[in-house]
């Protein structure tokens, strides 16, 4: 793995060592941060300030084009200041992080939050930073369908999305990578005059945090990785892992729904409810469902189901959406709910930005198998045990058609830096097994496992006192638990 000299340059620029004065990256470490009122109402209300930081588009050619990265800060106000804590990208990749200080502060509580400078960031390509919008026509992660014809349509669709991205942003795309985002983070750390920086990352943000720690190990203080993925399987092989987890979620939801058949009319047993779901997809394969002004085909419905079925506190809402799909499959005419409209509507600018970043980061970070038959074989193997989600989790990756190779090799993660890994056992987006693999990859880490909960993302967004207290104790003391921690689901009100 190649580690560039830029890491050293950032520190040298901060400490003023003359030997680095001629390095072209040094001027970026000397820019003044101009803090101003945040445009985000929640951040402004919390008292945060925002700024734009200038960074090189290409760190290997820092005298070339520059872009901006938007950051926010909720400054420490209490005694016993600990340091800087960055709330990493909230997921995706493509999730915004500028509002991270507000989220982190609420989870930490006022006493602990006041001991940190809380930093948020919209990574390069995202939100208020220099952004990319490819003009995608819908979700890129679509089920491959029920047969060869559906698979061919999926290939054509992914090729079209890649072409849209390349047409708009061919100059930016090679540099929209996790490693460059990590370099941006370290430049921000230097500008904040912080010898070290603590970090909280969720979902894809756990991979970003792991990469940052690998590239800049001496710059990391406390590290929290919430709903983690296995860096060794990122990105292409991460997706097949979610198939089984989503099928298990569907089983649990189907059992719950079967017990309420008088209300939802989807089947009186788990098997019958599942048969209803599979029947909806089969009908959509014969002819797309018409739901008001929207249409839903066999490629969209599994993605829609995976999207809504991510938190088992909301089985009732999810059953309501499936009931709508079932009505449409029977030919009924009705106005869809707001939830269904949101999933079936074309991407707005914000969603397009997030989806475009998905594709850009995945394809910029690592190569993908380019033979469509590789994907088809995986799809076919998955159908027996994953009839709903196998063709989605194993679908052809847009990176199979990406015209350029990544400019850098993927980062190989593996070090002895302490980290706290937080994970629910029923996570359908970043599966529990991936967090266990990351724990093995980082042997000095500890795990906080939340059992009997099907939920992606926990700290600050899912109420569980055990999880919150474990994370806050680590952030306050810098000391990991002596052993792994097991938390249980709390009763709902």
UniProtKB/TrEMBL annotation:
Signal peptide (residue range): 1-20
GO MF, any single term: hydrolase activity
InterPro entries in the record: AB_hydrolase_1, AB_hydrolase_fold, Pept_S33_TAP-like_C, Serine_prot/Carboxylest_S33
Family: Belongs to the peptidase S33 family.
Sequence ranges assigned to domain Peptidase S33 tripeptidyl aminopeptidase-like C-terminal in this UniProt record: 393-487
Pfam short name (any one): Abhydrolase_1
Organism: Actinomadura rudentiformis
Name this protein carries in UniProt: Alpha/beta hydrolase
Keyword Signal annotated: yes
SUPFAM superfamilies: alpha/beta-Hydrolases
Keywords: Hydrolase, Signal
Chain ranges of the AB hydrolase-1 domain: 84-269
């Amino acid at each position: 793995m190649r580690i560039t000299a830029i890491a050293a340059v950032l520190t040298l620029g901060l400490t003023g060592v003359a030997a680095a004065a001629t390095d072209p990256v040094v001027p970026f470490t000397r820019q003044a941060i101009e803090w101003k009122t945040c445009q985000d109402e929640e951040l402004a209300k919390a008292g945060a300030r925002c700024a734009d930081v200038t960074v090189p588009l290409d760190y290997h050619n820092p005298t070339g084009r520059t872009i901006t990265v938007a950051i926010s800060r909720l400054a420490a106000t209490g005694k016993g200041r600990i340091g800087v804590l960055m709330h990493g990208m909230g997921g995706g990749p493509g999730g915004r992080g500028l509002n991270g200080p507000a989220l982190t502060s609420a989870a930490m509580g006022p006493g602990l939050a006041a001991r940190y400078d809380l930093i948020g960031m919209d990574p390069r390509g995202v939100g208020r930073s220099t952004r990319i919008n490819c003009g995608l026509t819908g979700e890129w992660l679509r089920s491959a369908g029920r047969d060869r014809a559906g698979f061919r349509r999926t290939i054509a669709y992914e090729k079209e999305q890649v072409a849209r991205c390349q047409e708009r942003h061919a100059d930016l795309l090679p540099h929209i990578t996790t490693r460059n985002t990590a370099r941006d983070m370290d430049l921000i750390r230097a500008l904040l005059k912080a010898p070290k920086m603590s970090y909280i990352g969720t979902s894809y943000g756990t991979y970003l945090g792991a990469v940052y720690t690998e590239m800049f190990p001496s710059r990391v203080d406390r590290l929290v990785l919430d709903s983690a993925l296995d860096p060794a399987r990122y990105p292409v092989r991460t997706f097949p892992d979610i198939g089984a987890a989503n099928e298990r979620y569907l089983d649990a939801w189907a059992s719950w729904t079967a017990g309420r058949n008088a209300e939802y009319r989807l089947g009186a047993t788990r098997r019958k409810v599942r048969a209803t779901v599979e029947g909806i997809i089969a009908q959509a394969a014969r002819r797309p469902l018409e739901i008001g002004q929207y249409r839903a085909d066999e490629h969209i419905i599994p993605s829609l189901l995976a999207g809504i079925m991510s938190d088992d506190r909301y089985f009732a809402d999810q059953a309501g959406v499936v009931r709508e799909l079932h009505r449409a499959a029977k030919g009924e005419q009705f106005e869809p709910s707001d939830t269904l409209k949101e999933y079936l509507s074309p991407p707005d600018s914000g969603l397009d930005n997030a989806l475009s970043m998905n594709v850009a980061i995945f394809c910029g970070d690592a190569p993908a198998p380019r033979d469509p038959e590789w994907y088809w074989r995986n799809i076919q193997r998955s159908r027996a045990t994953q009839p709903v989600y196998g063709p989605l989790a194993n679908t052809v990756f847009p990176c199979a058609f990406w015209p350029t190779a990544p400019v850098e090799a993927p980062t190989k993660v593996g070090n002895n830096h302490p980290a706290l890994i937080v994970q629910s056992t029923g996570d359908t987006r970043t599966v529990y097994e991936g967090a266990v693999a990351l724990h093995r990859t980082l042997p000095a880490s500890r795990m906080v496992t939340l059992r009997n909960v099907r939920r992606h993302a926990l700290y600050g967004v899912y109420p569980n006192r055990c999880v919150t207290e474990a994370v806050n104790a680590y952030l306050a003391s810098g000391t990991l638990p002596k052993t792994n921690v097991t938390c249980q689901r709390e009763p709902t009100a």
